[in-house]
Amino acid sequence: MSEQELNVIRVNLDKVSREKNRAEQDAAQFQNSLKEIKFIKEKLEDELAVHKKAALEESSKRKRLEEDLEQMRSACKEHTNTINQLRLKIEEVSIVKQRSEQNLKGQQESLDKTLKEKQRTIDELNLLTAELKALQRKLLLEQENVKEANQRNEQLYRTIEEKSKIVNDNKSEIDRLQSLTQNLTKKRLRLEEELRNLRQELDDMKMNKDNCDSDKTALISELQLQLQTSSKRTLELQGLVNELSKEREKFRLEIERFQKQIMESSNMIHESQTHYSELMQEKEMLLVKIKMLDQDKTRLQKYEDELSRVKATLDSESRLKLRLQDEHKQLQNDFSYWKNQCEMKEELVRKYNLEKDKNERDRYSMKSEIDRLLAELKAIDERYKRRLEDAEREKSDLQSQRIKMEKEISTLRQSPVTCICQTDSSKLVFDGIRRKITAKQLYDCKIIDKATLDQLIKGQKTVEEVTLDIQPSLKGTGVIAGIFLTPKEKLSFTDAKNKKVLQPESAVMLLEAQAATGHIIDPKVNEKLTVEAAYARGLVDREDKDKLLTAESAATGFNDPHTGKLISVGQAKKKEMISRNTAIRLLEAQVAAGGVIDPVSSVFLPKDVALDRGLIDGDLYRALTDPQVDTMSFIDPATNKNISYPRLKEKCRVELHTGLLLLPALKKKISFIGLREPVSLDELVDSGIVNKDVANALEAGIITEEEVNEQARPYLQGSSSIAGIYDEINDRTLGIYKAMQEGLLRPGTTLELLEAQAATGFMVDPVNNTLMTVEKASNSGLIGREFKDKLLSAEKAVTGYKDPLTGDIISLFQAMKKGLIEKDQGIRLLEAQIATGGIIDPKASHRLKVNIAYKRGYFDEEMNKIVSDAKVFCDPDTQENLTYLQLKERCIIDKVTGLCLLPMNKKKQITTTQKNTLRKRRVVIVDPDTQKEMTVREAYHKNLIDYDTFLELSGQECEWEEITITASDGTSRVVLVDRKTGIQYDIQDSLDKGIIDKKSMEKYRSGSLTLTQFAGMISSKYEGETTASSSSTEHVSHSSSVTSATSPSVSRERISSASFTLSRPSEQLEEISPIAAIFDTETLEKITISEGIRRAIVDSITGQRLLEAQACTGGIINPANGKKLSLQEAERQGIIDQDMAQRLKLAEKAYLGFEDVKNKKKMSVGDAIKEKWLPYESGQHFLEFQYLTGGLIEPDTPGRRSMQEVIRKGMVDGRTALKLQDTSSYPRNLTCPKTKLKISYKDAMDRSMVEETTGLRMLEASSMSSKGISSPYNVSSAPGSRSGSRAGSRTGSRSGSRRGSVDLSSSYSVSSYSSDYTGN
Fold it and tell me: Does residue 632 come out as left (phi exceeding 0), alpha (psi in the -120 to 50 range) or beta?
C-alpha cells in the first residue's frame, strides 16, 4: 500500500470522524428537542390541570345555580299560594257583584216596562212618519225616471247627429276615392297611349338598331309591370268603393232604426207625462194625509205629557240607580286593585322565569364552552402524542442510521474509499401550490441560488431548512380568507353574500382571488379546497362555479386549445381566452399573495422572472409595476368604491390561532331622528351625548335603539317650547298668533314667543298638536305674513346661517359675532335654546352640552354669563321681565298633547286691552265703472284721483298702536303711533298742552273711547295747529330746512312748533355734507380720516364708520377739493388703502344700489334689508347716515327722498321710519376723537365744524382727551402732557348754517353750536 493511498484513507477517516461528530451533535440536538417536547408536555399537563380546576369551579357554580333555582321554585310556590288566596278573594267579590247585579236587574225590569209603553207610542209615530217618507221617496223616484227618460232622448238625438256626421264624412271620403279612381284611369289611358307609341318606336328601332333589342325589351317589361300595378290599384279602389257603398247602405238602415227608437222614446215621454199627472194627484192625497197627521200630533202631545209624569218617577229611580252604580264602581275599583296586585305578582313570577331561562342559557353556554375547551385539550394532547411518536420514530431512525454509519466507518477503515457520494437533485423535492417541485426546478425559476442548490446536493442543508427560507414562493403570504363578524363568528364569502353582509359582485371577486392563488379557503375549519370540493361543501354557489373554475385556471394553468399545453394567465389573455381586466385582477391577487404563479412549476415567481419566462407581457408588467397606474380592480365593502387587493389586505385582521386574514364586516349605520336631519351614532358619541360603552353595546345588540334614543332624546328633540296660550276663563287652547288676534297678547310679545319656537326647532300648532316649519306655518295660517320674514331669520338658528364670505353654514352664536343678526335678538334666541335642552348645532341637527358647544365655537363663557343674567321675555299676565326658563316654569302641561301652554286670565287683561290692540282705519274708493273697491294708492295709479286728494286721503288712513318708549336715562313715555305714516303723539304732552282733557283720558283708559277715536281726537287738533302755522308762514328758510333734515324730531310737539311745508315727490331735499375730514387740534391741520387713523388720533372702528357714511351718501370725499370719488379712485389717490376699500364695498352699494339677481333691478338699502341681501345692523347704520345727511337715497334717482315719500314707496316701513326719526336713540358706536367718549353719528355731526371755503365738515381730534383722559389709541400720550385741546373757531347755532372759519394764524377757541351743547 502506497503512501498516497494511506493519505487518502486518513482524509476519508477524518471526514467520517467529522460526520460522526456531526451525527453526535445532531443526536444531542435531538435529545435537547426531546427535552423541550417533554417540557412542553409538562406545561400542557399543567394547563390541563388548570382547565380541570376551572371545570370543577364551573361544576360548583352549576351546583350553586341549581340551589338558586330550588330557592326560586320555592319562592314561585309561595307566589302561587298568594295568587290562589287572591283568586278566592276575587271570587268573593264576584259573588257580591252578582247580588248587586240581581238587584239592578229587578229595578231594570220595572224601568223596562215604563220604557216599553213609551216605545209603543214612539213606534206608532215612527210608522206614520215612515209612510210619509216612503210616499215622498216614490215621488222623487218618479221625478228621477222622468229626468232619465229626458236624458235618454237627448243621448239618442246626440247619437243620431254623430251618425249623420259620420255618414257625411263617408260621403266625402267616397267622393274623394271616386276622383282618385278617375285620375288613375286617366293615368292608365295615358300609359296605354305611351305604350302604343313605344311599340311603334320599338318596331322602328328593330329595323334600324338590332343591337339595342335587349335594352328595349327590358324597358317594355318595366312598363308592363307599371300597367299591371296600376290595374291592380284600380281594382282595389273599385273594391273599396263597393265596400263604402255597402257601409252607406248599413248607415241608412241604422238611421231608420234610430228613427224608430226616437218614435218609441217620444211615446215613452208621453207615458211619463201621464204618469207625472197621476203622481201629482197622489201628492194631493198625501197632503190630505199630512193634515190628518197633524191631528195625530196633537194626540201625541197628550201622550208626551203623560210621559213627562213617567219621567219624574224614572228620575227618582235613576238616582237610586246612580247610587247603586257608585257602589258597583267601588266594587270594581277594589276588584281592579286586587287584579293589579295579582298582575304585579305575575310580573314578578315572569321576571323570575326570565332570569331562570337566562341562567339556563348561561349554564348551557358555559357547558358548551367547557366541552369545546375539553375537545381542544384532547386535540392538543393527541397532536402532541403524535409528535412524540414521530420523535420516537425519528430517534429510532437516527439510531439505525448511526449504527449504519458506524458500520460504514468500520468498512471504510478496513477498505480504502475511492469516491464521495452526492445526493441526486431530482430526489430533493419541495411542496408547491398544487404539486411537488424539485430543487433543480427551483433553481431554474431563480427562487434559490447556485450555492443553496450545491448545499442541498452535498447535504449541508436540508429540504426543511430551505423550505422555511422560500416559504412565500412555495405557499404564498396568504389571501383574504373570509369575513370577521365577532371573535366567535366568521363567515365565508358565499355566506356573507347570502346574509347580505357583502355585495354579490364583491364576494365573487374575493372568491376569484382565492381560486387564482391556489385554493378556496373554508375560514371556519381553516382548510384549503379546490373549487369542485368547495362547491360540494357549499362554500361556492352554482351560479359562481364557472367563474371560479376560470379563476382557478390562473393557478393550475389554462389549456391551450391548439397545443393542449398548460399556459399562464398572461398567455391566456394574449390568446384572448380571458379579458385584460380579468387578467389584471387575477394577477393583482397573485402578486399580493407572493408573486405570479407558474402553473407548470406551481410556485409564486417574482414579476421580473415571470416577464423573462413569458408568463406575462410588457403591458401586464407595467400595469402591475407602475405606481402611477392604480388598478383598483376590487370593491371595498365598507365604501363600495374601487380598491386594490393589497390595500384591501391591509384592512384585514389576522386571526391569532389560525393566521387567516379576515376582512372586518361593514358596520350597520345606526342613526336617530334629529331636529331636521338624521343623527348618526358616531356623532352622538363625539358630542358626548352617548357613552362609547353604550354605543358598543348597541352595535353588539345587547341594548336596543329605542333605549339609546330615550337616553339621547333631551339632546335630539329637546323639551317643548311654549307652544300656545291657555285661556283660563273660556277653558280653551289657542295658538300664539291667534291669541294676539283676539287681543290676549301684544304683537311684540307674540313675536318673541314665536321666534323662540322657530329658534328651538319648529312652529307648534297646540290645537292639532303638529310641528311645522315657518314656511308651512305661514301657508297654513298658524302665523301671520307680517312675522314670516323675522321668523325665517329666527329659524336659521336651527338650520344655520350662511357666511357671506365663505358660504359655510354657521351657528347662531357665530352669526352674532359676524354681525349677521342683532345681539339682542341673538341673546333671546340662545336663551330659548338653552331653556329647551341646549345650544343647537345646525350642521349636526341636534343640541349640545355646554362644554361641547364651547369646543365647537358655538358658545363661550362670556355669552353664557350674559344669557344667564338676561331677562328678555315678558310675562303677558304680570308684565314682568323674565328668562325663558322662568316663563316656562309658569306654564302648564296639556294632559292630552303634553305641550307647554302659558296660562292667561282675561280678567287681568281688561286694563291693558287698549295697549295690546292694533286699530286700523281704511279708506276705500269705489270705481264708478266697475263698482270695484280699491285702495287710495290703486285709485291714484288709475288716475281716478289727483295727487292732492291722494295725500289727503292717505293722511286719513291710519294704523294706530299704543307703545311705551323708554329713553337711555330710564324715563318712559306713552305714545300713540300711526304705523302707516310713522307719526306719533305723546299722550302726557298732549294732556299738558290742553289738546286733550283729563275726562277724555279717563274715558280712553276705561274703554269708553276706542284707540282709533282717541287718536283721531288728538290728531285732528294737532292738524288744526299745523294748518294755522303753515298758513302764517308761507316760506321756509334755507337754514331751517337744514335743521329739519339733520335733526328730525320724534315728538309731535317739535313738528307742530316748527314751520315747514311738505315737499312733492318731484322736489328734492338739500343734501348735507357728511364728516369729510379730521381737524388735528395739535398740528392745526386738516387731514383725511385714514391719516387720522394712521396718527392714532382716530380709532379704526370710528374711522371706518365715518368713511362708511361718506361711501353710502355719494362717495369718498377728497378734503383738498371737496370732490366725491369712487372707492377705486380714492384708493388710487391714496385717500384710503386697499384693505379699507374692501371693507367699504357694502357701503358703496348702499349708494349705487344692490342688484337683484332675478330682475336685475337696483334695490335701495331698505329693500336690501327686506330681501336679506344686507345684514340688518349694517343696513340700519347706512339708513341713519343717509337720513342725517339729507334723506334716504333711491338708486338711479337723483336727490334725496323725504320720509313720507319713502314710506309711500315702501322703501321702509313705519316702524323703521320711527326709529330713524328718533335720533336720540341712535347707537353710540363712535368714539369722539377729542373727548374719547362714546357718541353717535348724530352727535359727531353736531360737534363738527364746517369749512367756509369748501363747506366740508371736519371733526376735531387730538391724542389727549379734552376731559383729561389719555387717548386709548396713542400710547405715547400721557395725562398732563397737554392741558385741554386747541380748536378752530366755530360759529353759528344748532338751527343755523353751522358754517365757521378756521384762522390758523390766531389763537383758537371753541364756541358751542347751541346752548345745550357743552363740549362733552
Answer: left
Backbone φ, ψ for residue 496 (5° rounding): -65, -35
Identify which of 812, 719, 795, 733 has the alpha carbon closest to the alpha carbon of residue 767.
Answer: 733
Q: What is the DSSP string of 601-624?
A: TTEEE-HHHHHHTTSS-HHHHHHH
Handedness of CA 663, 664, 668, 674 (dihedral sign): negative
CA distance 399 to 390: 14
Give the pLDDT confidence score for residue 951 in this predicted structure. Answer: 63
Cβ–Cβ < 8 Å for 727, 734: yes
Mean pLDDT within 1180-1191: 91
362-371, 867-876, 978-987, 1220-1229: which has the minimum mean pLDDT? 978-987
Distance CA(673)–CA(706), nearest Å, equals: 11
For residue 641, count other CB atoms closer than 10 A to its CB. 8
Residues near 240 by beta carbon (within 8 Å), at least 6 away in sequence:
177
Question: What letter represents residue 706's amino acid?
Answer: E
CB atoms within 10 A of CB 683: 19
Cα dist. 254→153, 157, 161, 858, 942 in Å? 17, 13, 12, 86, 63
Do residues 82 and 341 make contact, with C-beta atoms less than 8 angstroms apart? Answer: no
Provide Rg for the chain, Cα atoms: 54
For the record, the C-alpha cell of 1196 comes out as: 338711479
DSSP three-state, residue 848? strand
Helix (H, G, I), strand (E, B) or coil at 530: coil
DSSP assigned state of 910:
G
Terminal-to-terminal C-alpha distance of the chain = 138
* pLDDT tens digits, 150-180: 777 677 767 777 777 787 777 777 777 777 7
Say if residues 1193 and 1186 touch (Cβ distance below 8 Å): yes
Find out whether 766 and 727 touch, Cβ atoms under 8 Å: no
542-556 vs 580-593: helix axis angle to the nearest 10? 70
Contact between 786 and 740 (Cβ < 8 Å): no
- Mean pLDDT, rounded, for 1282-1311: 33
CB 1294 within 8 A of CB 1314: yes
pLDDT, mean over the chain: 78
Q: What is the DSSP letter of 919?
A: E
- Tell me the whole-structure pTM to 2 decimals: 0.35
- pLDDT over 70 (residue 542): yes
Tell me which residue of 588, 552, 585, 557 sits closest to 572, measured CA to CA: 557
Can you give the pLDDT at residue 931? 66
* Cell 362733552 found at: 1320
Average pLDDT over residues 1114-1140: 91
Pairing of strands 1085-1087, 1075-1080: antiparallel
Dihedral of alpha carbons 457, 458, 463, 467, sign: negative
Question: CB-side exposure of 297: number of CA atoms within 13 Å?
Answer: 7
**How many Å apart are CA 796 and CA 678, to the nearest integer?**
18
pLDDT at 210: 67
Nearest to 1221 by CA among 1059, 1050, 1072: 1050
Q: Buried b vs exposed e over 505-535: b needs ≥16 C-beta within 10 Å?
A: ebbbbbbbbbbbbbbbbbbeeeeebbbeebb
Contact 1287, 1310 (CB under 8 A): yes
Q: Give the residue ranges of DSSP H helices in 432-541.
A: 439-444, 450-458, 463-469, 471-474, 493-498, 504-516, 531-537
d(CA 176, CA 182): 10
Contact criterion met (CB below 8 Å) for 523 and 481: yes
pLDDT in tens, 800-812: 998 888 888 999 9
Cell digits for 162?
254623430
Residue in 644, 696, 709, 642 with CA at minimum distance from that of residue 667: 696
